[in-house]
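Anyone have tokens for GTP-binding protein RAB5? Sequence:
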Amino acid sequence: MSKQLQYKLVLLGESAVGKSSLVLRFVKDQFDDYRESTIGAAFLTQTVTLDDGTAVKFEIWDTAGQERYKVSTSLSAPMYYRNANCAVVVYDITQAASLEKARNWIRELQRQADPSIVIALCGNKSDLAARRQVTQEEAQKYAEEEGLMWTETSAKTGEGVTDIFTAIAKKLPTTAPPATRGGVRAAGPAGRAGVDLNKQAANASGDSCNC
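Reply: yep, here.
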């Protein structure tokens, strides 16, 4: 039986950089020019299948980027990224200020999230390259300095969207020792937490199979 693993992924970044559009493109392969801003957080799931047959299911938390939500979450051990295994921090390549906001979010993650969290910096709206304010060189240099994954995407055209989530899935651990109490969460290498769905189903049925 192919392995199935489940990870919590959060999207962070300033409002209007296209976080919700990225998720919509990834989950439903759709784009809506008139999509309204997210209020609070939205929750979706999508599965990526790796070359070895491992199915990586992402529990995706799409957060509002407004500062008032950032402040409120910062006060309560960031419920959005509590226990997050990975994060996509999004900026708009046509808005230089949005990269600075992204840097703030990354500092927040580095300070508050699990040290083993996989962070990807994502420059969205690559279809608007003619209006570019953030160069690829600037963003890539920053990502390298901070040890982040980096890419540019276009939620509108779909360019690079699936690729970034697949790259994250490949970077996450695909092995999990026996589940912790309750059979809900198992720790992967370097302390990352992941859920082995096959093992979870076996536990629920009373079967001790480690397939």
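The longest helix spans residues 96-112.
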